[in-house]
Design brief:
With 293 residues, this protein is an alpha+beta fold. 36% of the residues lie in helices and 16% in strands. The chain contains ten helices and seven strands. The strands form two sheets. It has a four-stranded antiparallel sheet. The protein is globular. The N and C termini lie far apart (122 Å).
């Protein structure tokens, strides 16, 4: 009896953690094998140890999340030809796997070997902070970057502390996406907002690229239009106010300029009077021809 109560209590916690997304996924056509990994809460001493080691203060919402569950993993598959193909994946690394993205230089590394810090040039950094877009993180000691999700090799979602000073504890953090070309894209200012985005996008492949100027791949867009049509349509309309970027905008007059035919002038239509006179002329002509015969 007690085991039943504990299982029901944990099921209630799991429903709150997943915001009820497991039931939604299970009721979708073709979706199967929805799995939510159960994890124990992280200990407070492990959180304090992480903060002391990395000289950073965890955001309050992320701290509360780790005190509820030490990480998050939810996966689901689709049925294709009677086989389950993995598709959706939602991951938040545990405290022990919340590792720095920029590791210190190894002792025996080559002295002239390039590093990520070489990608920081002044022109790029000054442009990223102009306008309404926040300034992009640095790959040097100015920023402290920690990996929240590896995104299945399609990039990295990172917890970023900017404007850091060596030896000083960093407190303000943001959530950024680092794509495969090592370009930064701002996502949210808080972990809670990012968590809701992850749940809303169902963990579909490359959903983080919706926050980039070029967007996901065509295949990822097909999956999104199939299992997430409402959100996909809203993002598509926001990216393109006209809403017709997917249409073929081919102009035949420009593409086939050398093959277009010259317009043929239309024949002048004859009036009834002229048609009658022409008929008379034809009749008289016929009579003249007959007379000659």
């Amino acid at each position: 009896m007690e085991d039943t109560k504990e299982s029901l209590a944990f099921k209630g916690v799991a429903e709150r953690l997943t915001l009820g997304i497991t039931r939604i996924l299970e009721n979708m056509p073709g979706v199967g094998d929805v799995r939510f990994v159960e994890r124990e809460p992280a200990e407070k001493r492990s959180l304090l140890s992480w903060e002391q080691k990395n000289t950073c203060i965890l955001p309050e919402d992320l701290r509360d999340f780790y005190l509820t569950t030490d990480g998050f993993t939810l996966t689901w598959s689709v049925k294709l030809d009677n086989e389950c193909v993995p598709l959706g994946c939602m991951v938040i690394n545990s405290v022990t796997r919340l590792c720095p993205l920029l590791h210190p230089v190894a002792l025996f590394s080559l002295p002239n070997a390039p590093s990520l810090a070489d990608l920081d040039w002044e022109e790029n950094n000054t442009e990223s902070g102009t306008g309404h877009a926040p300034a992009a993180p640095h790959f040097d000691s100015q920023s402290r970057i920690f990996e929240l999700d590896s995104c299945g090799g399609n990039g990295k979602v990172c917890l970023v502390y900017k404007n850091c000073t060596p030896g000083v504890v960093a407190q303000q953090s943001e959530i950024w996406f680092l794509d495969r070309s090592l370009c930064w894209h701002f996502m949210t200012a808080t972990f809670t907002s990012y968590y809701r985005l992850m749940i809303t996008h169902l963990g579909l492949p490359e959903w983080q690229y919706a926050f980039t100027p070029y967007g996901p791949s065509p295949q990822a867009k097909q999956w999104a239009s199939l299992y997430q049509p409402l959100t996909f349509g809203c993002e598509h309309s926001m990216a393109d106010p006209a809403g017709d970027s997917h249409l073929n905008k081919l102009d035949p007059t420009k593409a086939f300029r050398g093959k277009t035919k010259a317009p043929v002038p239309k024949k002048k239509q004859s009036t009834p009077c002229s048609s009658g006179s022409s008929a008379k002329s034809q009749g008289s002509t016929g009579r003249h021809v007959g007379a000659k015969r």
